[in-house]
Amino acid sequence: MSKMPIIDRSKGVAAGRSSGSGFGNLAWAVATSDDKSLDLKGQVAASFAKIDRVLGELGTDRRNLLSVTVFLANLDDKKAFDSQWLAWVGDDPGHWPQRMCIGASLSAGTLVEIAVVAARPNES
């Protein structure tokens, strides 16, 4: 009998879902703000904080992001999001992931949802 691969999971806030998972050299995380009363700036900050926490639990961080998908309830908010994005992602192009931004219908009160894929450099 072969050994089952180890999948790391970060506890989610909703039944049946994880906030992130890791397998081998990769980690995936998704975040929205738990506080839907926040404005866009507040929800983005809360989402980035959650991404940082989940990636840390999975043994990596934002410097190792490979791909990011941003879902905005209102695509007209992209410029406002971009200013926060640049502050969060940093000024080192060596750490900039591929990123796309999509206008989407999100759950009630959710203004932004962010999904990321990151490398886990210490995994083999």
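(the above was protein one; protein two follows)
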Amino acid sequence: MAAYRPEPDRDSRPWWERVARREFAVQECGTCGRLRFPPRAFCPECRTEVWRWREAAPEGTVESWIVSHQPFVPGARDPYLVVMVRLAAVPGCLVYGNWRGERDPVYGERVRVSYTEVRDGLTLVDWMPETSGSLQDGENPPAS
């Protein structure tokens, strides 16, 4: 069974390329200035197709999370935790990723990005508590 991989499309490919270089960015409308994520062709505010990438601080707060007991990826630890993070620099944007903390997340706690290189050039955006030490690529926190 092949492992699930995100499949970049026309709108998301440049974002995944940036993530592979450990760059965190969102789109900024070139007409009205609205910041947005996920990447898309049209601005939801003014409907223009003019935009550029803008670096954003890879930090935010925990909005919600789920514990998955279904191993969708072969070899993934079971269960695993996925968090929904509200970006500090772009409050209307929500980004998902695996939890890389040594404990369960807490609603509203500050988090920062943790890039995880999976294989074959795929790098994922994961999240960890702002105050914890950093994890190496692909390293999982101890199971609780």
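Reviewer note on protein two: The first strand starts at residue 25 and ends at 29.
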